[in-house]
Amino acid sequence: MGLPENIETRLFINGEFCESSNGKTFDIKNPATLKLVAKVHEASEEDTDRAVAAAKAAFPSWSALSPDKRAVYFKKLASLMRENNDELATLEAASMGKPLAGFFDAFAGASKWDYYAESGYNVQGATSIQTPGYLNMTLRQPYGVVAAIIPWNVPLLFLSSKLAPALIVGNTVVLKSSEKAPLTVGLPISVSVNMMLKPQQSAKLATLVQKAGFPPGVINIITGFGNVSGSILSHHMDVRALSFTGSGRTGRLIQAAAAKSNLKPVFLELGGKSPAVVFDDADIQDAVKQTAYSIQWNSGQVCMANSRVYVQDTIAEKYIELFKEHMKSATMGDPLEKGVDHGPQADEVQHKTVLRYLEMGKESGDLILGGGAPSDREGYYIQPTIFTNTPEDAQIMKEEIFGPVVNINVFKSEEEVLEKANNTEYGLYAAVYTKNIDRAMRFAKGLEAGTIGVNCTSPTTGKDMPFGGYKSSGVGREGEPLYSLNNFLQTNASIQVLISVSRGYSGSRADPVECRVRVAIVHVPALPAGLLRRVGNARTIIGIAKSIVDGTITSPTLQETTTPPLPEQSSSGDDDCPQEAEPVVESVKDLHEPLGCMMKDSRGYIGAHSEIPFNAAVCSIGDQSLKSPNIITPPKVGSYPPALPTPTPSADGSSVTETFHLPPRKACEYYISRFLEEVHCNYWFYSIETFLNRVENTYTSSASSASSSWMCSLYSIFAIGAADMHVDSNQSPMYTASMLALDDKSAIDYIALAKQLIPAVYDEAEIDSIRALAILSIALENLCSRVTSYLYMGAAIQMAYSLGMHRDQMPESGSAMEREQHRRIWWTLFILDQEIASRGGSPTLIDERLLKIDTPLPSEQMLYPGMHTPLAWLSTSVSLCRLKREIIQTVYLERSTNARNISFSTVSNLLLSLQKWLQLIPPHLKHDVPAPPTHKRAVAVLHLHYWGSTILLCRPFLLYLVLKYSTLGSSKKIWFERMGKTCIDAAQKSLAILQQMAADGMLSSITAFDSTCLLRIVMIFILAFAHTRLPHYRSNIEASIDLMRGMKQVGFCKMVTEETPMRLADLGITDEKVSNAGVLLDDDLIAQLWGNFDPNFMTPLQTQQSLDLAFDDSSSFDLNSEILQFTNLDDSIVIDPSQAYSSFDFR
């Protein structure tokens, strides 16, 4: 691709392009051809002052916007950057010589804007009530005008990494781009930040900023030389913070200027002389490939390139020879040509600097490759160069060269090489290659650098990690999760509020008890609907709270609560659906459609990540007759949630609160054994020995002395264990009449007894209360009381917060063993919260993006998890749970209202993360490794969670493939088919695990988990069968139904077993084993049922549950890409509908 005809080279100030005030320009030459590319306007002192003034004027209105309103501009700019990737790559190649093949900056920069668009609400202050009578707060506020000065080697990425976090928290910016690469950054951008970028890139990006609609003055971009514009920004009194990436010399000047002016905080990311240490046990091929790429990439013009390599003497000869061959393979040429991966240095100054260092190197070390400029081409090229045996005190070992020049030295011992690696004034990046984990950890701690790569090297960095340098390589850190945001925020502290209200009464009503309210926001349950409109600020809320305390609160009149009606809907659904509630605010209506839907029976809002709306979308395939296709119809059988009967009265008629009922001891033992084997193996709440001792004490001493929380826990356990005690004996042959005679109470009775104790459990609010609520939540979920289960789970987590369990807090009297128990309970709540919230489509109550968790995982050396739970199961499960949360947040919850697609790189990264989790789990937890009988269920459940997470990620694309097959292009279709195959593969793997569980007698119907897994894979097999009509997918459906029927028919399992065949019959997939299931459809009948399917029609529910892919990664169609290999599944998984019935085209 050639250069664009019109290249923007002017300054971008206050939303407009303008020439420099003094008319000065400077030339930009193509470093490969030495031809003039453009004349770029050079910012003067006056221009710099105008840019700062524009940013200052824009700050009040920009900072007043909410983060989500700022984010709209971010998303638009990110999209424009991706669309203009080719032009940006061409400008960068022409201005500083980066080959087109190595250009990733536009997509990487766009991902930064997308990331920070979602992070504005992560900025929060703190509160303290330690001063009696006061509420003390900290407020995190933007500085105002901040400046950014960026280098020329990766300008777009540096621009995005600095501007996006500064802007999202409310600052305005002046950006100064480098005089060496101004074109890509110079696109019209309107940001209140000043930075230095390559002029061509800066100008192009400024144009995109203008198109994105940023308000004038928010982003200002100027280009020029550091001794003018850079110096002015550093000294400027209206610039309140400055971020700089560049050389150490310039960083020192900027820091001095800031100190001499207004003491503005300065964040510096400076140069490096990064070492890479290669031990003889390393994978030598990987080490050579990665270390050679590090120094050769971008022609060595990278601050963290490993320009010093230390290799152990026993492998030195082989390593150097391989390294030499790898460097020789570099293709030098015009960066605008395809296949070139080694371009010129950025300009003449840089070229001469590298040549000067090469001459020094020849005097101090042994040159074995390169060593100068190629003689056969013009331009500022440098040959890839290798020196060996260079003295540690040589100048080329001490100073940053910024070219494709590496020094390889040999070492013998760890102590020797650690001292040499650290013998530098730089400390930006360091790497170590070894298979010895102990050595790797020693070097990770011992190397003096801001980033340490173990078996990897630069430019690899942690996406969610900070970046910065030790020693002279910088001051401060940039990056995630909050480092860059914090750099652009200042803290206001000690805002004190003193309010006096009458809160209660002591003695007569005329004798008020005075107290000081120390809260600015009061949560009052069940406020009248119209009252919400009066909640505008802290003073209003405190007034409402006072009115509630005084008893003078009045409900608003009807006129006060009236809201505008919704737009008139089609009358077709009036007969079957209740009228939808009026939205309180417009955003609620906006969120409703993409993120979830309502149950037809008004049982609540269901998030899109739940399987409930997905199952409904699958079951409505081809049915365009639904009157309200955006509402989930209720089940065909049963009432949900079921009406729980009152408990059976005790024999003596006493109240449960006076004398706790206990079942016969034999029944108790049976219930507990069921609970421990089938539930506690995954949800740990008690040390088994302690638990059994407490049960023994409860039976031997008076039960009336037990706490309500303990008895609520026992009743919940009894309810779980007795869940299938009273089912039909044909379904449960193991239960005999004598067994049923042991206990006259059913699971429903024990649920009722447990619920009667809930008020007392709330009052006790201690660790047993948490256990009771969580276990009761498990029992209720299996009885299809989804909302109640979620509420009890929430109460358990809130109690855990109040006890400081997320902060690893313990009473002073607590023992070390109790601390370990509390830790294990906390992480059990973490997992259970995810499961119950996800199955019901509700938000999790534990969100690590907003909540800092200090509680470590428990030590299994101190606290043995029990005979039914393998070691390391909890830590492995927690890591998978975090992955699932990331999938839900990324794919389902954080898409914008109108987003119908998701980036390919996002999905592929999540898929690879799942794959790596599976590769890294401990060997004894792998499913194909023989496990003790007592561990089999825990291991199986772990892997069902893994395959369920894979299905959760891939199912929207499988649904999209089935519904929109004929509209997909051939290249895109490949990826949708691979995502579909991955989803089907996960379902088949799940079915195999469930079948093995059935063979081992481990399938359980006393929790909802097993039935949920079966229902999940049935839906996937339905889609596979609908798409291909291949008989083995139908066989998989039947096998899944057989497993359901083989389970004890109680609770959720019973509902699924009865409901699923009915839904299948609606789709024409009838059950041959049921005589009244209807006629088994042949090809012609199926064609009649599904033949009128329109690929351009999707119900709102199907639209919500399916996703398109946006290919934002150049490697998407690379046959050697890691993600392509991962999804290259075996041939037994067929998804090509070429065998479709001849009479119709279901695509």
Structural write-up:
With 1147 residues, the protein is of the alpha/beta class. The protein has 38 helices and 31 strands. Strand 27 (596-599) and strand 28 form a beta hairpin. The longest helix is centred in the C-terminal third of the chain and has 30 residues, at 970-999. It is elongated. The protein starts with 10 loop residues before the first strand and ends in a 21-residue tail after the last helix.
Coarse shape? elongated
Mean pLDDT, all residues: 78
Oligomer: single chain
Terminal Cα span:
38 Å
Largest sheet: 7 strands, mixed
Helix-residue proportion: 40-55%
Please give the count of helices.
Answer: 38
> What are the low-pLDDT stretches, counting only 5+ consecutive residues below 50?
186-201, 499-596, 598-603, 646-657, 729-738, 1074-1098, 1113-1128, 1139-1147
Give me the count of strands. 31
- Decide which structural class fits the backbone: alpha/beta
